[in-house]
């Protein structure tokens, strides 16, 4: 049996992408969220998710400037819970939310990795979350965005690093490993700049694992996102023979598919945190229970054989509708 750890739920984090804005690409939102998508309802939902996550032992919260009002909701929650002083906050810059809280927006977010974008977005993050931010990522850094070669941006980010904020990148796409390895080579004043990596890793898309292991060996944080593949590895989300097999294996183990998917991510020795994207307290509880699940070696071996071609995986992800 391969254990996921020691039932330490602090290795889990809660991500606010799905509760910070009315539309997102995660499957099942119509049934999970219903038709009420107003700001007050979502603020209450974010509070319920954060309360449930904290009660479950989760102490890392992930937000981003492009997650609609996620930073605002998190700030309000922290103000309303002044006794909570042990939560690490991570956020991201590099995308702007432009959906205007509309389900039918033609464009929901715009990428901008310029120095001007960093300066403006860090000011916004800092105003809301102040000294609570412990980790700040470039959102979806890629080789072609230029941010990994931009010395002016690096210098500005080094200012945060030197004030105690851990600077890193998040990654997406079939070439995540290239971005991670490139970022590991960036130094400012002789010291590594990027020491946190938030990357997609799941049963269907594990291709970044070797690079993430290298990052962990170098002393960086490695944060796993999308371990349930935007709902494809959640109850009712099976859409292929591979995802159906994961669901069947979960039944055979007497657990749920989301727990099995998250437990598999937790079993990766290089993973510092694994994010849940839960949208209600019941999902938080189910995701958190993954920390208590021991993964049989035979199951782990079979899951390792279910990976999809990265290009195919990411093309399908890019085509998912915002709902």
TrEMBL record:
Gene3D superfamilies cross-referenced by the UniProt entry: NADP-dependent oxidoreductase domain (3.20.20.100)
Domain of life per record: Bacteria
Membrane-crossing segments per the record: none
InterPro entries, sorted: AKR2_Oxidoreductase (IPR053135), NAD(P)_OxRdtase_dom_sf (IPR036812), NADP_OxRdtase_dom (IPR023210)
Pfam hit, one: Aldo_ket_red
Domain (NADP-dependent oxidoreductase) ranges: 43-306
Name under which the protein is recorded: Aldo/keto reductase
Source species: Pseudonocardia charpentierae
Lineage: Bacteria, Bacillati, Actinomycetota, Actinomycetes, Pseudonocardiales
């Amino acid at each position: 049996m391969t254990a996921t750890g020691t039932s330490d739920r602090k290795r889990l984090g809660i991500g606010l992408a799905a509760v910070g804005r009315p539309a997102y690409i995660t499957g099942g939102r119509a049934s999970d969220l219903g038709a009420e998508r107003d700001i007050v309802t979502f603020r209450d939902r974010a509070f319920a998710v954060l309360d449930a996550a904290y009660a479950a032992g989760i102490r890392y919260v992930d937000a981003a400037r492009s997650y609609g009002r996620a930073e605002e909701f998190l700030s309000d929650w922290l103000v309303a819970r002044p006794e909570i002083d042990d939560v690490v906050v991570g956020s991201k810059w590099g995308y702007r939310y432009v959906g205007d809280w509309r389900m039918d927006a033609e464009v929901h977010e715009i990428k901008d990795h310029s120095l001007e974008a960093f300066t403006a977005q860090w000011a916004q993050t800092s105003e809301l979350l102040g000294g609570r931010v412990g980790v700040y990522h470039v959102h979806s850094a890629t080789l072609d965005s230029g941010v990994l070669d931009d010395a002016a941006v690096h210098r500005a980010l080094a200012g945060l690093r030197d004030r105690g904020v851990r600077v890193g990148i998040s990654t997406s796409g079939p070439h995540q490993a290239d971005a991670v390895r490139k970022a590991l080579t960036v130094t400012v004043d002789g010291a590594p700049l990027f020491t946190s990596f938030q990357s997609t890793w799941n049963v269907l898309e594990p291709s970044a694992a070797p690079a993430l292991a290298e990052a962990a060996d170098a002393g960086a944080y490695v944060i796993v996102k999308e371990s349930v593949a935007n709902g494809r590895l959640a109850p009712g989300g099976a859409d292929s023979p591979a995802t159906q097999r994961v669901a069947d294996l979960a039944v055979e183990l007497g657990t749920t598919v989301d727990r099995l998917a998250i437990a598999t991510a937790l079993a990766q020795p290089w993973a510092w945190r694994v994010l849940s994207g839960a949208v209600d307290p019941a999902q938080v509880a189910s995701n958190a229970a993954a920390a208590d699940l021991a993964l049989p070696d035979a199951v782990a071996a079979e899951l390792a054989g279910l990976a999809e071609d990265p290009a195919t995986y990411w093309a399908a992800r890019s085509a998912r509708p915002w709902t």
